[in-house]
């Protein structure tokens, strides 16, 4: 699996990732219409030149009930349709989480998804956040209407927070 900072992505890979996301989320209204943050880092699984799966990592300081907390965001997890169901999604997620665990002072992995993906992430050890989530969208802070999933790394204010402010675009 390739580890590549976003700023070093080749233009052909950027286009391939955009096309993968467009196809994967064509019927996912919330995902399609949301303005997303760019990942800082990517993990790509290739077969020859073709990307078979990808996941991004976003570094962010968020605020949980007024307390600053560092999280590693998981973004743009996509496996191409003919490679699904063989464990690649789990491997990508595990690799991104390993990267996040290695970050100093990080409290948790965090990701945003549609409600129908909650069972997928729960199966892989993630828990759903109960509190309200605020994030920026087109210059205004809004309430996120999808689900937010957490993978705790160290005990933190995230664990029972009532309001989480993502301090920027969602990922
Ligand atoms: C979600 C996605 C990444 C899963 O990739 P994948 O390679 O098929 O997943 P895996 O084969 O690693 O599956 C891991 C486990 O989750 C289960 N699983 C897979 N998709 C699931 C789903 N939609 N709902 C519930 N469980 C699911 C698998 O059965 C497997 O369980 P097991 O280990 O008990 O057998 C892939 O379906 C995809 O790209 N979907 C479109 C994009 C998307 O929705 N991405 C998530 C954005 S938040």
Automatic annotation (TrEMBL):
Source domain of life is Bacteria
Q: Which InterPro entries match?
A: Acyl_CoA_acyltransferase, GNAT_dom
Gene Ontology molecular function terms on file: acyltransferase activity, transferring groups other than amino-acyl groups
Q: Where is the N-acetyltransferase domain?
A: 4-154
Q: Known Pfam families for this protein?
A: Acetyltransf_7
For this entry, the protein name equals N-acetyltransferase domain-containing protein
Originating species = Roseiterribacter gracilis
């Amino acid at each position: 699996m390739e580890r590549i900072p976003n700023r070093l992505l080749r233009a052909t890979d950027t286009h391939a990732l955009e096309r993968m996301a467009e196809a994967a989320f064509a019927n996912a209204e919330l995902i399609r219409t949301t303005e997303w943050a760019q990942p800082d880092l990517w993990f790509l699984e290739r077969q020859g030149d073709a990307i078979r799966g990808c996941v991004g990592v976003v570094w962010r300081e968020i605020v949980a009930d007024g307390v600053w907390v560092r999280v590693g965001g998981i973004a743009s997890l996509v496996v191409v349709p003919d490679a699904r169901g063989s464990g690649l999604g789990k491997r990508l997620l595990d690799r991104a989480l390993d990267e996040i665990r290695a970050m100093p002072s990080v409290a948790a992995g965090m990701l945003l998804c549609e409600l129908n993906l909650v069972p997928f992430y729960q199966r892989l050890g993630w828990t759903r956040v109960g509190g309200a989530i605020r994030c920026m969208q087109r210059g205004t802070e809004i309430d996120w209407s999808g689900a937010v999933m957490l993978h705790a790394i160290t005990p933190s204010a995230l664990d029972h927070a009532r309001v989480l402010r993502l301090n920027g675009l969602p990922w």
